[in-house]
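FW: tagging you since you asked about this chain on Friday. Here's the raw sequence from the shared folder, copied in full. Didn't touch anything.
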Amino acid sequence: MTNEKFEGHSFHIPVMGIGFTIDSPIKLAAYGITSTISLVDDVLMEKMRAFYSEKFAIPYESITNKVEDSRAKRITAYLNMVDHIVRDKFEQLKQSICETGEEFEKYMNMLPDYAEIKKQFNSFFDSNKTIEDIRKWANQHLQMGGIDVNIMTKLDKENTFNNEKLPMMFNDAHAALRGFANSNLHSSIVLSAGMNPRLYSYFEQLDCFFPNEHGKLDKKVILKISDYRSALIQGKFLAKKGIWISEYRLESGLNCGGHAFGTEASLMGPILQEFLEKKQELIHDIYSVYIAALRDKAKPIPVNPWPCKFTAQGGVGTAEEHQFLIDTYNLDSVGWGTPFLLVPEATTVDSETLELLCNAKEKNLYLSNISPLGVPFNSLKGNTKDIERLEWIEKARPGSSCPREFAKLNTEFTEEVICTASRQYQSLKLKSLKEQGLDSILLETSIDLTLQKTCLCVGLGTSALLVNGLDTRQEGNGVSVCPGPNMAYYSKVVSLETMCKHIYGKLNLVDDPKRPHMFIIELELNLSFYQKTIIEYLAKPSDVVKKQIQIMSKNIEHGIQYYRELFANQSELILKQLDDKWVEFIAIKSM
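HL: got it, structure written out here
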């Protein structure tokens, strides 16, 4: 049985936005639940460090912009504080056994019945019932959840200090990586949003990612990938630097929160099947490259490959889907993101946004054009950041003042990079459009696309400030939120214990009994994306897009056939839905 391999929980909570999981480990790690902090916004982390330092009576000294390497130092200081608080809370949880025992009981109750720790405790408790015996057992066996961190690799803006351009190692992503490397954490860094060769090469300068004198890895690397090919390419690139990938984390291209990468309509099921069939081959190929690099660097060489996990996330919403993924694809963990936005004990979401999320239906959740990165972004209609953006347009002052500057990537009008959501860019872009002599329909469409961009650097972090009563004068009160399509099937705020019961099948929080299987939802999203791409191609043909459409068509056709075989003896309903999607696919293909 696949479940026998789980010591504790079989789910993890991935990064959500910038601020929604900024302090999730403080809330969760003591209970053995792993969550992920975004390293995008060091200013937000500094504000949160001041807040928590006061709350837990921890000495605090501000790290200002006048401090050299302030970004990395802020990140290190924040992560060290989180680590300190979590370890204290974990010790208090274990000590609580000698008092009320409530926290220890909560820890154990949230675990699935198949968790090895839970089974061991139940067996131990049958013959050892003194409080002191239980306390000793807890000290030896209870495990903290991971305090993982996430870097969006492409957010790697160059920086200056005292008006002088700094070397590459001070770029945003480089500084974030160094901040994690210098921290006390023994956890993992998640690399997301594609490969950044310069950043990946920087790992070589950080000893904590190589085996130490005891032959252990102090800090590990998780690679968020879209398919097997990207795992192999990025894994080998890092292995040549002497860096081991401890986890390959597949995320659905479209059936997820935040940025959506669905360019070739590769479906989750077939991709997971390829990993299932080739994972040992992948580990072997990477290991041979890895040990050669370690040998060249005179580093300790492991006799066997380090442990390597395979996990998946994006769209899972029921206990049945959770267990199906684990059993079918032998996964080491399943990521649950969007549903946890409705769990205040796990994430940090302001009350107004919580209400919007509770009331969200399919029609309110959409794939938007709001991201300055130029990548489709899952969003919620009516979010307070959008209202704020529209108010600025009404005042004839569109765009953001760009207080954070993390998404400065555009040089269309300036020598220095600026952000497409900034007031500066939008002013220049609108002026340019009006000077081009475009027909009224094209002009209106182009203006609308320009003005849709919003300041995600601030919008995705402000919720943490609002919840904790912190100053938002610089940021404003507008919140951008990034739920996946799954949010349509949840409608109430719940406790952490309740969500765990939902994940492990002890109760059901999904409102709609007709909710399609997560694979069907993802297929629907890809069919819509496929149709949109064809419509755009017909309006403006190009060889590149034509080739993209051909690949998408092939992937969708293969995916539907794969699902027909996968569910042949399991679900007549899913097979009927697949037949309907096949008809829809043929109709779109013949456009």
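FW: The first strand starts at residue 11 and ends at 12.
HL: agreed, and The first helix runs from residue 24 to 28.
FW: great, closing this out.
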